[in-house]
């Protein structure tokens, strides 16, 4: 795994339609729009934040986690509006022993159903396989989160199974999670 491709310098990733880049303090309004909506986190282990100052502080935590080399959170931006955050996509749990990483994503509700998460994940998968040289990318999904499962399946992930009462998620308690994975070899 080429961990320096991720943590040497913050990686900006792009496609014809979208740009994945660092979330800055001045994006607080859009990030707050995501985090203060209960519907966004209905199927996530994240507790919504209803205070804009808390969200601004949280943006600082994104930097802290990046500098600790534990997590990367990219803002998802449309190329025509390169300074408006549509959602967030992240890579966590860089397991260098087995060359694997876990991904997650969430969008502001106004951006649901437009294919944004699907394309943002496609950009991230390409980066993780071609630049970081991971072998496995996985995602953990609550069983009722049909929308997220569709995003994963469209990107070639395979449902590998359900872990029963296996995870404690904030605000949700102990839950079942479905594991979806994709290996570099799956892309042919």
Q: Key features?
A:
8-stranded mixed β-sheet; 188 residues; single chain; 28% helix; 5 helices
Description:
By secondary structure, this protein is of the alpha+beta class. The protein is about 30% helix and about 35% strand. It is built from five helices and eight strands, in the order αββααβββαβαββ. An eight-stranded mixed β-sheet has the order 1-2-3-4-5-6-8-7, sandwiched between helices. A hairpin with a 3-residue loop joins strand 7 (about 160-170) and strand 8. The longest helix has 16 residues, at about 50-65. It is globular and about 40 Å long. The relative contact order is 0.17. The mean pLDDT is about 95.
Layout of helices and strands, plus pairs?
Elements: H1 4-7, E1 13-14, E2 18-22, H2 28-35, H3 52-67, E3 71-78, E4 81-95, E5 100-107, H4 116-130, E6 136-141, H5 146-154, E7 158-169, E8 173-183
Parallel strand pairs: 5-6
Antiparallel strand pairs: 1-2, 2-3, 3-4, 4-5, 6-8, 7-8
Helix pairs in contact: 2-3
